[in-house]
Amino acid sequence: MRTLSDKDQAETGLNQAGFEQLFDAYYDELQHFIFYKAGDTEIAEDIVQDAFLKVWEMRSTVRVETARALLYTISANLFSNRYKRMKLNLKLQQTFIEDRTFETPEFEMEIKEFDRKLQRVLAELNENNRTVFLMNRMDQMTYNEIAANLNISVKAVEKRMKKALEHIRKEIEQKF
Amino acid sequence: METGKNRHIDPSVFSKSNFDKLGTDEKVDIFIGAYRVPRKKSKAEALELLRSKMNQGTVQKPVRNLRVYWSAAASIVLIALLSTVYFYQSAPSQIVASKSQHIDYTLPDGSSVTVNADSKISFSKSDFNEKRVLKLEGEAFFSVQKGKLFVVETQLGSVEVLGTTLNVFARDKELSVSCLTGKVQVKSQSQNVILEPGEKADLISGKLQKTSNIGTENMAGWRTGEYYFEGEPLISIFEEIERQFDVSITTTGLENRFFTGGFSNKNLNEVLETICLPMELNYEIKDGNRIRIEPRKK
Question: What is the C-alpha to C-alpha distance for residues A70 and A55, in angstroms, rounded to an integer?
């Protein structure tokens, strides 16, 4: 976890411009973050919307330096309080299959099958492992960045990544 | 992020002969690299919507799933069990960790234990190698040497171990056992469950319930000062902070509220802020060690 410097302490409070800068910087990654947990676009967008609104309401006490981790914590809590035992139907979007011509119909089947299985394996992953894995692979966040955003140690990030990778490798190889 | 970046796959991948040459990890990376997170609203639309709400105040109340906070039910179980207190043989040794203290200790059989703040273990030193039985009040992490059955007795049930690492949390209302490696058997009254790595058993309203697929890195983070909570009652989290920092916390209006997130035990102010800011709570520290926490008034 980061320690507070005197500078952080000094800069408390956000104005509208500062707040909208936060929105611009972090909206996408937060929408992704909740999508990785929920597998549902509307839920992800609603949660992130409400998280920003909460930060806006508490703007006088928010420090820019810790706002990103704060947004993550609020979003994760809104999500876990509202949708804890939701059945997951995670489907990432891909555009690389439909408009492509394949050498043979069999090969097209094989590619589609791989996509389907990979998506299923991702959906089956433990929520925390999947989230960290996709933050790294899809949002290209470093382990340090993920650890800071989620207030966990880098070692915990490494372990979740390792678990996710092992699970994916095992399941994909087994299912082919 | 996906808006700016064109997620593109090298077309040569989509030739059968090239695809077949790739390993699983490479295929996974290529596919995931090309996936996008779907969205309904564009970012600009989301910002418009947000702006329209920003000056109205009031966020909608979350539609919360009903979850039972079971302390009332559990204390009845505790009272029922108190009448069957154990008799303890021969002068026991005790390892007592006071508030804000963690103690590492090596038991006579070579097993090691880390006792968390405000917790106590007791055992008989003279015949521990014969009978590996100890009693725990509070929370401790064990790394057990292989050998004879190793038993951790708590007020609400006992835990039997062969050779393994595990975390036992046994405070008056709660019993929670996590298995990090090896195999563990948890017994309470007539129930028993067997835990494998990544599994956890909780005694909830007198019933032993097993949860699987928990990251072992979250199971005993307290040993390194890293705490992670997943949907835990806020009240239990503040109790943990009381033990780790030796402070006294009074709360009002936090029943049925839950927190997911982490903190490290380095700095009390920072910990309070990590929890209070996102959960919209006010905290006030008096005389350095008395803390009042309540929901922020709207």
Answer: 8
